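ARCHIVE CARD
Drawer: 12
Card no.: 0347
Subject: one protein chain, sequence and derived structure
Cross-reference: see card 0346
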Amino acid sequence: MLNLIFLGPPGAGKGTQAHRLSVRFGLPQFSTGDILRKAVADGTPLGKQAKGLMDAGKLVPDDLVNGIVEEAVQAPLVTKKGFLLDGFPRTVAQATGGRSISSSRCRFRWRFSSSG
């Protein structure tokens, strides 16, 4: 199983590289924005919460983003081969919350170090 996470600032090429590897290895690619839009379009309970915030021009809180990402990686689209996450986590809170994201298909383990 190959699970890859692409981190970096906007415009760094995360999506480009994730797409290339997705095609090459036949892995589903998930970007945070796409996951949020799909949850809203599908009308999931978490998607409805996100929609209300997005319609009000507010940011979707990290715990809600984590829940939506967790739902996505548990979807049938995630194969035994693995998946690619493009742009998640974006914040320390998402990363530390990601420690609890797990399923039969994946488990996130983060290691942090701080310098200065």
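Annotation on reverse: The two ends are 35 Å apart (CA to CA). The beta strands are 2-6, 29-31, 82-86.
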